[in-house]
Amino acid sequence: MKYLKQFSIILFISFLGEILHTFIPFPIPASVYGLVILLTALCTGILKVGQVKETASILIEIMPVMFIPAAVGLLDSWPSLYPVFIPVILITLITTVLVMAVTGQVTQHMIKHQMFRRKKQKKN
């Protein structure tokens, strides 16, 4: 019963994202609206992590399975993708490396900043 309740909460938030997507004319996917709503609810305390933790963990574990339909869709689109295959692969590789590098730099900066704050608090 706990999983059903948690899954219902996640589905309700996703539904709210769909509603926002319908009424807000920006080219943002409804799932992104849902994630922003979930993040806001968690940060403000409206929703506690424990209220969705177990079901969210299960959904994260099965996430790779969710990519199979997208991969099959790409295979179906092969005639359209063939002429631009090399540029798409290059763009994907370059942006992946760029995102990994920027994420690493930001993470290192945040860790250093946290360590600096802790040292400063210990002195006071």
Number of H- or I-type helical stretches: 7
Count of discrete domains: 2
End-to-end separation = 49 Å
Give the percentage of residues in beta strands: under 5%
Average pLDDT for all residues: 92
**What does the largest sheet look like?**
none
Order of helices and strands: HHHHHHH
Principal-axis shape: extended
The SS-based structural class is mainly alpha
- Indicate the percent of residues in helices: over 70%
Low-confidence stretches: none
The radius of gyration is 20 Å
What features would you describe in this structure?
- This protein folds into two domains: 1-67, no CATH class; 76-124.
- The mean pLDDT is 92.
- The chain starts with a helix and ends with a helix.
- It has seven helices and no strands.
- It is 82% helix and 0% strand.
- The chain has 124 residues and is mainly alpha-helical.
- The longest helix has 39 residues, at 85-123.
